[in-house]
Design goal:
Layout (H helix, E strand, L loop, with lengths): L7 H17 L4 H13 L3 H15 L2 H13 L3 H12 L8
């Protein structure tokens, strides 16, 4: 008998891909926020980084953005690690996810 529910890993990846598509392809920031928040809360490192980026650039919620960026960096997501180093070392420059 087939399982009626997909695995948590598949759900997490599905939320991440849906959020990424909503952000980059459709420019639907509300949908991107919902899906990326879900992926981030489920522990998807790239989802956490992208959610942090969305919070920073579109919501201007810097404290929340830093919190999620740190969570992604703690999982060794390379872009998040780089960004945290830049932020905490005092390097100025444009924010690039």
């Amino acid at each position: 008998m087939a399982f009626l529910f997909s695995s948590p890993k598949k759900q997490t990846e599905k939320a991440y891909q849906a959020g990424k598509s909503a952000l980059y392809d459709k420019h639907d920031y509300a949908q991107a926020e919902r899906q990326l928040r879900k992926a981030a809360q489920l522990g998807h490192a790239e989802g956490q980084r992208l959610y942090a980026t969305l919070l920073f650039l579109h919501k201007k919620d810097i404290p929340a953005a830093l919190e999620w960026m740190e969570k992604a960096a703690a999982q060794n997501e390379p872009h998040a690690v780089r960004r945290c180093v830049e932020l905490y070392s005092g390097e100025d420059g444009p924010y690039e996810p």
